[in-house]
């Protein structure tokens, strides 16, 4: 029988879909937000389904103890989805690393004190697939990002250090509490409103014409609905202590995403979608003037494929076609006025 689960970062892209699926399956959900005054009405409106009366909302922040004991009270499970996201690359990497690590350790401590039996951390492919010199390779759940590599940027470091710190803490102090991580790749799919996730920024930029040419970048794509489903399976399936599950589907270059949008959306909606790949030398020149381009310069030309067979074989998890995720994402961005066509 479903119990009571705490979902941190309740207004986030993955967390919102996870809460929806948990309520539909009969769970009671405690969700943390940074401000109830700003977030409660929006979160409840987005749920809009039977079971909303089983949703309780608490204020808690990653860098403060306030509210965590109350949020965990009565919970048997935790899905720790919250993690700091910066609008731009910080000058000091610790602005991302410290909240990610300390916030996760805080969530673990309060979960253990509350008697939680299963703690699922939303980690990232950032903790798995970076810090390598090869142009093309495949990773699985045994791989870890090398945070000492010069091309590894703060967000990637923060996710890697956070997951390693969590696993070390559970091994040393977790007692009987089981720890599982879910490591998603590029999360796409429909957005709920105009307050959209940074993970769909690539689709937004392609659709809005912010990229006159597509840089030679790519990602393994996964749908937010499928990522949430994998979290539910990790919360419910017995005997998963210590497991790590990669959530990813097909690897696609940005130009392939552009092609899918042109093929599957009305022509009037894709007039600004790029048709050509940006030469690598142009990326190098732009990186001299644009910090955002500079941060991705080392990613140009790389193909990181993901072997997600462990989640499929162990949990029966499946992913929908990447085309569906991309098109649903684009349609929702248009519907909510994020992209004007």
TrEMBL record:
It comes from the Bacteria. Keywords: Oxidoreductase. InterPro entries: Epimerase_deHydtase (IPR001509), NAD(P)-bd_dom_sf (IPR036291), NAD(P)_dehydrat-like (IPR050425). It holds the Pfam family Epimerase. One of its GO terms (molecular function) is oxidoreductase activity, acting on the CH-OH group of donors, NAD or NADP as acceptor. Residues 5-239 form the NAD-dependent epimerase/dehydratase domain. PANTHER family: NAD DEPENDENT EPIMERASE/DEHYDRATASE, STEROL-4-ALPHA-CARBOXYLATE 3-DEHYDROGENASE, DECARBOXYLATING. Belongs to the NAD(P)-dependent epimerase/dehydratase family. Dihydroflavonol-4-reductase subfamily. This is NAD-dependent epimerase/dehydratase family protein. It comes from Qipengyuania gaetbuli.
């Amino acid at each position: 029988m479903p119990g009571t689960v705490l979902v941190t970062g309740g207004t986030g892209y993955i967390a919102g879909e996870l809460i929806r699926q948990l309520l539909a399956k009969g769970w009671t959900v405690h969700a943390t937000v940074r401000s109830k005054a700003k977030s409660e009405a929006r979160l409840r409106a987005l749920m809009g389904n039977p079971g909303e009366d089983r949703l309780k909302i608490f204020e808690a922040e990653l860098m403060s103890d306030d509210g965590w004991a109350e949020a965990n009270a009565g919970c048997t499970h935790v899905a720790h989805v919250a993690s700091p996201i910066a609008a731009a690359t910080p000058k000091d990497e610790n602005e991302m690393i410290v909240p990610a690590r300390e916030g996760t350790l805080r969530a673990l401590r309060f979960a253990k004190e509350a008697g939680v039996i299963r703690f699922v951390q939303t980690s990232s492919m950032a903790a798995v697939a970076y810090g390598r010199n090869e142009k093309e390779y495949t990773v699985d759940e045994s791989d870890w990002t090398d945070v000492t590599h010069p091309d590894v940027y703060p967000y990637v470091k923060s996710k890697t250090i956070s997951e390693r710190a969590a696993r070390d803490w559970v091994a040393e102090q977790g007692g009987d509490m089981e720890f599982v991580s879910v490591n998603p790749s590029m999360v796409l799919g429909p957005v709920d409103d105009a307050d959209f996730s940074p993970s769909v920024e690539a689709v937004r930029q392609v659709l809005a014409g912010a990229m006159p040419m597509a840089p030679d970048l790519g990602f393994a794509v996964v749908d937010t609905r499928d990522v949430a489903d994998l979290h539910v399976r990790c919360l419910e399936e017995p005997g998963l202590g210590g497991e790590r599950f990669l959530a990813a589907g097909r690897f696609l270059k940005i130009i392939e995403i552009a092609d899918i949008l042109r093929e599957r959306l009305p022509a009037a909606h894709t007039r600004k979608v790029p048709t050509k790949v940006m030469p690598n030398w142009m990326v190098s020149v732009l990186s001299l003037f644009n910090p955002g381009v500079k941060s991705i310069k080392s990613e140009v030309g790389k193909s990181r494929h993901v072997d997600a067979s462990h989640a499929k074989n162990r949990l029966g998890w499946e992913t929908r076609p990447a085309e569906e995720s991309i098109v649903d994402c684009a349609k929702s961005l248009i519907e909510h006025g994020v992209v004007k066509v």
